Amino acid sequence: MTHLTDRRSNPFGLTPPFDRSDESAVPAVFGYGDPNADFHVIGDRPGVHGGSTSGIPFALGRRETPLTSLLRSVDFLSDDADGPHLDDCFLSYIHMCTLPAGTEPTADSYARLERFFDAELRAVNAHVLVPIGRRATARVVESYTTRRTRIELDMDALHATEIRGRGFLVVPLADPDRWDESLVARASDRFESILSSDYRQTKGVATTVG
């Protein structure tokens, strides 16, 4: 599928029900990047993974982090006059709306935003899903694989492993603030291995999922 848009942020024009946010925060941190990407990196929410000020998931472009270093190492991330540029990679959150500092979203809040994340995931229609952290991994494994009851959510053990999903290859990563040199190397090696393979054979029809 080819998306006729050059918008990096919220290319699909989602309009979720915004939660109350701090005055300095954006109402929501929408998906960002290449809408035709083969790799979809999925985080929890702005309060956990950043972006409530910049409006870009994982606060991309604000500072160099282990995640941005990984994305640069596999040529997904570069910079231009308009800011961070992603090629073949899209970033988004399962809970895109922001909340006041110190406020935790409820289960109902996650459920209310579920259809917006699903719509974004189906629109991108990536081959490889890369959930980051325990909550995003649980959501992706439960919704897009048949193995939720057979997988222990030990993120250090799951980090940079491959899980065959229902039309997707799922590659979970631990939270980047926990990465040491060994976890960075495992993630980099896994991405390089996938990129050198015929990973597109793992893809099914995403619109039939769910």
UniProtKB/TrEMBL annotation:
InterPro entries, per the entry: UDG_Type-4/5, Uracil-DNA_glycosylase-like, Uracil-DNA_glycosylase-like_sf
Transmembrane segment boundaries: none
A GO term for molecular function: deaminated base DNA N-glycosylase activity
Entry-linked Gene3D superfamilies: Uracil-DNA glycosylase-like domain
UniProt region (Disordered), positions on chain: 1-20
SUPFAM superfamilies: Uracil-DNA glycosylase-like
Key words of the record: 4Fe-4S, DNA damage, DNA repair, Hydrolase, Iron, Iron-sulfur, Metal-binding
Domain Uracil-DNA glycosylase-like: 30-176
A Pfam family it matches: UDG
GO biological process annotation, one example: DNA repair
Protein name (database record): Uracil-DNA glycosylase family protein
Species, as recorded: Halovivax cerinus
Native organism taxonomy: Archaea, Methanobacteriati, Methanobacteriota, Stenosarchaea group, Halobacteria
